Automatic annotation (TrEMBL):
Residues 1-106 form the STAS domain. It comes from the Bacteria. PANTHER family: BLR2341 PROTEIN. This is STAS domain-containing protein. SUPFAM superfamilies: SpoIIaa-like. Gene3D superfamilies: STAS domain. InterPro entries: MlaB-like_STAS, MlaB_ABC_Transporter, STAS_dom, STAS_dom_sf.
Amino acid sequence: MRITTDGATLRLEGDLDVRSTTEVRAAVYDQLARHDHVVVDLSGVAGADVTALRVLAVASRAADLRGGHLTLRGCGPAVRRLLHLSHLIRVVDVDRAALDVGLGVG
């Protein structure tokens, strides 16, 4: 997993799975401590599992509780499908504009 930051945006590249959860959790919470609104860009994520997506869902909930916000951007079809199947889509904010562009809407 490669993690880079650009302001309040955290870009993840590689496999977002159980092996990367500790590293991703630390990076996300570090960003949330610095910024009120954090964007996690998943456009470089090759694959994901539910365990890693739960880390993002818990971080999103924690941000909400302290008055912040976390948005997922660049979710590919596999990540979106897993978010729906796991019902985590109800917990996380997914950048809708990016979804619409990817689906050819608008």
